């Protein structure tokens, strides 16, 4: 039986809290339906005010999961179901506890920017843990199944349809702001996910190659690959150390190298993804 991942569960819940805060305090009170099941719930809430946004999200997600099981024949992870249902429930809980009647600030641009930033950070944390919030992800997969559109385009189509519907519910100005929102949201999510996963490729040329390699493998617990080269000026044979580490690990390695070989030549590259046994980030 697979061991329950407490860290992953904790981070997913942190992402849920951040995402819900961005929605409830900035986007929902400003009528900014920036795609997703939340945007659809906001539009429907405009015409069915007796149903809370969170309640509509819950109903919508349940319906979408049922449709997904029937049409797609896919099994969605417990985390995805958990995430989508908890977000909708949390929105309702916040509405009952805070009962916010108006946006925190009057400037719609500020509400859009801060709402999207906060929501995007929360979404990035959730996606980075290998799950999602359901919603239009499911719609995108259905569109993809019956058309030649790739998932990314299918997701954009689903979100654009919701944003267009928001024009009829909240007016053209709000709808146009929402178009900006879905674009900004995708950029923020991509940037934050890349930031979470960024690692450093370190290349080292040193006379103390054995000591440095031993330090990296034994003290840092990272793998090392040795490449063979020659100095362009001296024509001496050299062994070049290659490794991929986190930022914190790089600081330790750099400090150690300075202590044992101040003349060592080091250069680094930032990489967004590393795959392989023992090195999957």
TrEMBL record:
Q: What is this protein called?
A: DUF2179 domain-containing protein
**Matching InterPro entries, A to Z?**
DUF2179, N-reg_PII/ATP_PRibTrfase_C, UPF0750_membrane, YitT
Membrane topology qualifier: Multi-pass membrane protein
Q: Which residues cross the membrane?
A: 9-27, 47-72, 79-102, 108-128, 149-170, 176-194
The DUF2179 domain sits at 222-276
Keywords assigned: Cell membrane, Membrane, Transmembrane, Transmembrane helix
* Compartment list: Cell membrane
PANTHER family registered for this protein in UniProt:
UPF0750 MEMBRANE PROTEIN YITE, UPF0750 MEMBRANE PROTEIN YITT-RELATED
């Amino acid at each position: 039986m697979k061991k329950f991942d407490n860290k992953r569960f904790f981070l997913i819940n942190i992402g849920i809290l951040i995402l819900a805060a961005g929605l409830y305090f900035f986007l929902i009170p400003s009528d900014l339906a920036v795609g997703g099941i939340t945007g659809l719930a906001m539009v429907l809430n405009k015409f069915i005010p007796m149903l809370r946004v969170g309640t509509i999200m819950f109903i919508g997600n349940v319906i979408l999961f049922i449709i997904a099981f029937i049409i797609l024949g896919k099994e969605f992870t417990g985390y995805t179901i958990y995430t989508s249902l908890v977000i909708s429930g949390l929105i309702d809980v916040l509405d009952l506890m805070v009962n916010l009647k108006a946006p925190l600030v009057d400037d719609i641009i500020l509400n859009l920017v801060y709402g999207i930033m906060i929501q995007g950070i929360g979404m990035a944390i959730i996606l980075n843990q290998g799950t999602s919030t359901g919603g239009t992800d499911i719609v995108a997969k259905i569109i993809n199944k019956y058309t030649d559109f790739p998932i990314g385009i299918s997701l954009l189509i689903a979100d654009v349809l919701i944003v267009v519907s928001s024009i009829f519910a909240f007016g053209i100005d709000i709808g146009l702001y929402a178009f900006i929102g879905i674009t900004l949201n995708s950029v923020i999510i991509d940037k934050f996910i890349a930031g979470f996963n960024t690692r450093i490729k370190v290349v080292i040329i040193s006379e103390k190659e054995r000591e440095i390699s031993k330090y990296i493998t034994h003290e840092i617990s990272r793998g090392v690959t040795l490449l063979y080269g020659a100095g362009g000026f001296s024509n001496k044979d050299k062994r070049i150390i290659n490794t991929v580490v986190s930022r914190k690990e790089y600081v330790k390695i750099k400090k150690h190298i300075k202590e044992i070989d101040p003349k060592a030549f080091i250069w680094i590259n930032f990489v967004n993804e590393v795959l392989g046994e023992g090195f999957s980030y």
